[in-house]
Amino acid sequence: MKSANLGYPRIGGNREWKKALEAYWSGQLEEADLHGKLKEIRLNNLRIQQESGLDVIPVGDFTYYDHILDTATMFGLVPERFIYQGGEVDLTTYYAMARGNRDAAASTMTKWFNTNYHYIVPELGSAQPQLTVNRPLAAYREAKAELGIEGRPVLVGLYTFLKLSKGATDAELSGWIDRLLPLYAQVLQELEREGVQWVQIDEPILSTTLADEELERVQRIYETLREAAPGVKLLLQTYFQSVDHYQAVVALPVAGVGLDFVHDGGRNLQAIAEHGFPADKVLGAGVIDGRGIWRADLESKLAQLETLGRFVAADRILVQPSCSLLHVPVSAAGEQKLAPELQAALAFAGEKLAELTLLVKAAEGGASSVASELAAAKRSREALAASPVRARKDVHERIARLAEQPSARVASVEQRRSIQAERWQLPILPTTTIGSFPQTTEVRSARQKWRKGEWSEEQYEAFIKDQIRTWIGIQTELGLDVFVHGEFERNDMVEFFGEKLAGFAFTSGGWVQSYGSRCVKPPVIYGDVAFEGPMTVAETVYAQSLTKTPVKGMLTGPITILNWSFVRDDKPREEVANQIALALREEVEALEAAGIGMIQVDEPALREGLPLKRSEWDAYLEWAVKAFRLATCTVKDETQIHTHMCYSEFNDIIESISALDADVISIETSRSHGELVSSFEAYTYDKGIGLGVFDIHSPRIPPVEEITGMIDRALRVLDPAQFWINPDCGLKTRRQEETILALRNMVSATEQARERYAVTAR
């Protein structure tokens, strides 16, 4: 057996990657210096993998922003609104596609399958594809020349790329395959001439539900590629789930197939046991969890490899992660402040590389050859399992009595609507924001001083109050109809709550990439979750004391906290979600008791948790909706529950969104506004709704006319009485001047819309 990796975190041990990108965007770093800094990070990533003893190291998985954007620009697929004359796409255009510029909106961004990573959606449009630069070849040459690594180039599969793009209907996919297939063949031919032996082609789309005609397209793609470059061996890599059409996939004309044996529900292993595995192919055995942070049960992994060995010769097995290690932090070596039993149970990217090589040693030399390492791994898992944080009697009893808990609001949405309208007296087309305001350098510096003990609790509290007071004033001057306090005390929308709930822990350097340069440090849910005291009441009540305009209380919902955390692996995710929901219910009730009558419980990650198999969607959505309602259903009829969701692919779960029974929902849609609006032409939504009217991920200021167009488009299918006007998402990443200008334009567009539709305040 050999050990192999599928991809490595891009961000560097101290987020050097993020810092370099943001310095370049702000004009503090020249382009040549950016190239130099990113090359240094890229080579260091390879060096770490080389020194770990891996047999197979991927190259070409590094990026300047996003690997799907890289693929689009490699083939010259640049939207018409960006000035592009052909040839290699320059950095200005590349980043404009990702972030927008003064003249053009950014491309849509959405989740990468069911992970918390988000990619830039390619726009096929009318562009004529061309090979602008062979990125895998450049990566291969660099690794070989600089480090002597005979790397395995990584390429996003053609069918996955097209299925994740927009601009072509299903009927048009065959035509796009015809356009792009020769370019994929050219990439492989150039790699073949360079002497490359193996190429990893990522096709995670094969782990979703595909029709028979789609498999025929995939068959045609790989037959063509094999004929075009017969000297290159292709490892067809799937991940994130089992493959439904196992026999068809392993029969494709490739030299190897990679399968996920962690998140497949046992189905991939079952398929191999029932149907065997081709004797002429290599099996990429994804036995180490590429998405979780826990040390593996190495004894069970060895047993899994032993079972696979009954069907596949040992020299045809690659021991690898279930997916790219992009989704986990770089290294747990620097985590020194965690509980000992937790610290010992962690495995980030660096530790997972060690697990891979250890498994190969054990499989080749017998478990006795690495007995001490196996024993240490076992002890670490047992110690965590025995920890008191996993044995809270109060939490376990409450979950056992879950059926007795209220799970729906008593009054109907129609009844609540009239009660709330009487209480709030809002104008039609009310304006608001999603929650956060700019986290300036001053805000971040103050938080750091407080955390380090340089500021007292009183100093920090006074600072936060000053920020709240300033932004209540700004919102008043802008003329917004519903305010927020700005969330200046919050470092992250999940971490903030995790720090105040029992059962969570926080790493020092457990950063992962979410999108672009945006890195997050997910909380670690390692114990039973419980409410320990009010978390948001003081700041919200203070903000409300400064104004007669309603101020929303702001919480992160149970499913988002779950999906944006690293979750314990000894309990079903549904049970953990219910623990979080019951804890949040106490915070919702505390806000209401303190006089806060609008409470927003954000669920931006609801859709991210969808299983890849459509057959499994209903079960997930049922318990996810139940968890949200558990958290929110005990409030009075006059209390208005809001929620917020990110990204635009909601057409197919709109009924579940309605089932949340929130009084008002806001959805991030500015990058693909019309696509979601069209769903309301087919589905009658009976609650308040705000479709984001400007993109907060871009620094550009949306003109009034652009926002007006979005409002008009929405009001073709939505009743003005139910429509709210808001930005796409929170504004924490934007500068103050950008935020004020954008919101001023939003309010101006709203005032014009009220006049145009002859709608006045009630």
Notes on the structure:
The mean pLDDT is 94. The protein is built from 28 helices and 21 strands. It is 43% helix and 12% strand. An eight-stranded parallel sheet has the order 1-10-9-8-7-6-5-2. A six-stranded parallel sheet has the order 15-17-18-19-20-21. It has a domain at 396-401 and 419-756: TIM Barrel, CATH 3.20.20.210. It is α/β, with parallel strands linked by helices and 762 residues long.
SSE arrangement:
Elements: E1 2-3, H1 16-25, H2 31-51, E2 58-59, H3 67-74, H4 91-99, E3 109-111, E4 118-120, H5 135-147, E5 152-156, H6 158-163, H7 173-194, E6 198-202, H8 212-228, E7 233-237, H9 246-250, E8 256-260, H10 267-275, E9 282-288, H11 298-308, E10 317-321, H12 340-343, H13 349-365, H14 371-385, H15 393-400, H16 413-424, H17 441-451, H18 457-478, H19 495-498, E11 501-505, E12 512-515, E13 518-520, E14 524-531, H20 537-545, E15 553-556, H21 558-563, E16 566-567, H22 573-593, E17 598-602, H23 617-632, E18 640-645, H24 654-659, E19 664-667, H25 673-677, H26 679-682, E20 688-691, H27 704-715, E21 723-724, H28 736-756
Parallel strand pairs: 1-10, 2-5, 5-6, 6-7, 7-8, 8-9, 9-10, 14-16, 15-17, 17-18, 18-19, 19-20, 20-21
Antiparallel strand pairs: 3-4, 11-14, 12-13
